[in-house]
Design goal:
Blueprint (H helix, E strand, L loop, with lengths): L2 H5 L4 H7 L8 E2 L11 H12 L12 H12 L10 E4 L2 H12 L5 E6 L3 H9 L3 E6 L1 E2 L5 E2 L2 H7 L4 E7 L11 H14 L2 E5 L26 E6 L12 E4 L5 H11 L5 H12 L1 H23 L5 E3 L7 E6 L5 H12 L1 E2 L1 E2 L10 E5 L6 H13 L3
Length: 383
């Protein structure tokens, strides 16, 4: 076995979930998904595809009609992107892995903004790249901020890839337009590839239909790869369907990598994706409004607890909170689930920068579950 794989840390979130096996009454908020089932039209489209017998290999880059639909979806939000720049992938995380395989090899330098979903930093590590971490920092109110100049200073002509997840999992921090412009211009000067994980762009609580995207600023020739997923905006986490937008002339290389990884996304799953896109903005807007209601309710409840610090996330599905006097997030998360049946993700799961914090996914179809969860937290803290 490769030493780098043996040395990898297994999922701390799964570790907490495993600690709940003896407790049948758990309010689980640890995974990054809504508890709403995928909408019926999406499920029916996949079932019709299966009934038609569409169970064979497909094109590496995805169904042409899905790539066309994704191009239209993207163009409705950002400047024109052609279907020839889009590759359909077997999940967003698969798209990130493909981008890593395309760009980062042994000894290459990768810079990542952290804390962040651990897959983003572990993938280049698996490829033998060296990952440099530039940390967001929380202010006393729990608002996470980026020192843009520190990030620019970290990205040099020897930096092969800059990884940015915005809106950010777990903090909810989101790059502002001027910050994106500065980073993109700097990457042009250094020749650095910019990989933007924008899977939460529609889970956005600011103005506009989506969070600021690098696609709004980039030209088709820029060394920019933007990764998306059907998981969050379309309630399709278990379907494992994503896509990536790449520069002109690059998609054929991505097709090679897809062949050697998964060959293709399942055709019946892609038909589900087509049906999801056909739901239109009404579906996504309704989901975001429900998320906003859940976010505001959870924060209002948490802020009544002495010693709990939590800021309003700009985007995403998560509240990132800190409990005064609690510095070992894994131990605390295990105690919460074992003693109170409250399932939260430990901040250490997102790197050392998240230690002392807990992530709470507020995507709940029953907002009262959030209230019950806060009651359990208060009981654990003896408040």
């Amino acid at each position: 076995m490769r030493d780098v794989v043996v040395a990898m840390q297994s999922s701390r979130i799964r570790e907490v979930a495993n600690a709940s096996l003896k407790n049948p009454d758990v309010l689980a908020f640890w995974f990054g998904e809504s508890d709403e089932v995928t909408s019926l039209p999406v499920r029916e489209a996949a079932m019709r595809s299966l009934e038609r017998g569409e169970t064979f290999y497909g094109h590496n880059l995805g169904l042409p009609e899905l790539r066309d639909a994704l191009a239209r979806y993207t163009c409705a939000l950002h400047p024109a992107v052609s279907a020839e720049r889009i590759a359909v992938t077997s999940s967003g995380v698969n798209a990130l892995m493909l981008a890593t395989e395309l760009l980062a090899g042994a000894g290459d330098e990768v810079v990542a903004v952290v804390p962040v979903w651990p897959n983003l930093t572990q993938q280049p590590t698996m490829m033998g790249a060296r990952v440099r971490r530039v940390a967001l920092r929380p202010d006393p109110a729990g608002v996470w901020r980026l020192d843009v100049q520190a990030l620019i200073d970290a990205v040099t002509p020897t930096t092969k890839v800059l990884l940015v997840n915005s809106p950010n999992n777990p903090t909810g921090w989101t790059l502002e337009r001027d910050e994106q412009r500065s980073l993109l211009e700097h990457c042009r000067r250094t020749g650095t590839w910019l990989v933007a994980d924008e899977v939460y762009e529609r889970m956005w609580f600011g103005t506009g239909r989506s969070a600021p995207s690098f696609l709004d600023l980039a030209s088709p020739e820029d060394r920019l790869i933007v990764v998306h997923s059907f998981s969050k905006s379309f309630l399709m986490t278990g379907w494992r369907l994503g896509w990536m937008v790449v520069p002109d002339g690059v998609v054929a290389q991505v097709g090679k990598l897809i062949e050697f990884n998964t060959s293709c996304a399942p055709e019946f799953v892609q038909h589900g994706g087509l049906a999801a896109l056909a739901l239109g903005d009404t579906f996504v807007d309704g989901l975001v409004q429900r998320l906003r209601t859940c976010r505001d309710l959870l924060l209002s409840q948490l802020r009544q607890l002495p010693g709990v610090t939590v800021a309003v996330p700009d985007g995403g599905l998560y509240a990132f909170l800190r409990v005064e006097g609690q510095h070992d997030s894994l131990t605390l998360a295990k105690r919460l689930v074992a003693e109170q049946g409250l399932g939260l993700a430990p901040g250490i799961a997102f790197g050392p920068e998240g230690e002392g914090w807990l992530r709470w996914c507020f995507a709940s179809r029953e907002p009262e579950r959030l209230v019950r969860g806060v009651e359990r937290l208060a009981k654990a803290l003896k408040l």
